[in-house]
Amino acid sequence: MLQSAIRNHLxxxxxxxxxxxIRPRLEPxxxxxxxxxxxxxxxxxxxxxxxDGVASMVAVSAAGERTExxxxxxxxxxxxxxxxxxxxxxxxxxxxxxxxxxxxxxxALQELLAENVEVRRILERFALSxxxxxxxxxxxxxxxxxxxxLARWILxxxxxxxxxxIDVTHEFLAVMLAVRRPGVTNALHVLEGQHLIYSDRxxxxxxxxxxxxxxxxxxxxARERVQSTMTIEGGS
Amino acid sequence: MARYxxxxxxxxxxxxxxxxxxxxxxxSARTEGIAQIRELMADAIRNGFxxxxxxxxxxxxxGTLLATIPFTDAIRKKG
Lengths: 236, 79
Prior knowledge:
The complex is a heterodimer. Chain A is of the alpha+beta class. Chain A has helices at residues 9-12, 16-22, 106-115, 117-143, 146-158, 170-177, 181-193, 209-216, and strands spanning 26-31, 36-38, 46-60, 66-72, 91-105, 165-167, 197-200, 203-206. In chain A, strands 1, 2, 3, 4 and 5 form a 5-stranded antiparallel sheet that branches. Chain A has a 3-stranded antiparallel sheet with strand order 6-8-7. In chain A, α5 (146-158) crosses α7 and α6 crosses α7 (181-193). Chain B has 1 helix and 5 strands. Chain B has one helix at 26-46, and strands at 2-9, 14-15, 21-23, 55-59, 65-70. Chains A and B meet through α7 of A and α1 of B.
């Protein structure tokens, strides 16, 4: 496996030495929609570095209320690692948009982090950027209209997948955006009406990315955008 | 459990529910319908619109009309 072929930003940003340390511990894996990555407060077995596709982090309240609080694709690793060596986290983790990537056993990654400062730093930097993403999702959920929130979500997914087609049901989107299904159906109609997307049953395709960003306005910006490549020196 | 479909009927057009929701019975379907109406109305109000003249039609998988809920049924006046 050549590092130059790797599209995951964290793995491709590693120095040759760090890449050689992690490479033998990585297992390529297909990540179809609904693939179970980790359960709510359940022991984490692997960490995943997507190349393509999007994993969702879903918060679940004691009353069973659910909403997506974070998205991770080729920009990162999921579940989050390198903070307190937490062996379980209070989120559901699953693939939301199909793709593929690599995974590493939790113990193997913990060993590597203990030995290799560079890998730890890169994962910690991603942890900060994911925290920022979730903070701005909280802001978006609090103040932005469902149409803008939907546009934001579509753009964030598009940043992380190849092609421009997103297979997702309205019910799934309703859970992700914490609204009821007709609110989603309504919002999709609005975006379609403005020629920003095509929405067929079970699939969304972006029609005009630039106009969709303009429609999203403040809901999609520097805090949401995934750069096409990650640099070690620059901040996220 | 059965699948219930919630269509929103407005003067100019309607929004057809193509997916439906799996619910245990008609009572649950009505409760779901009321919740949907309140959310749609709240969202419209935030945008400055009053959509209380709309209604939801609950249908089963074969398209049979099971119930109609006017949006006004979902709210009560409170001074």
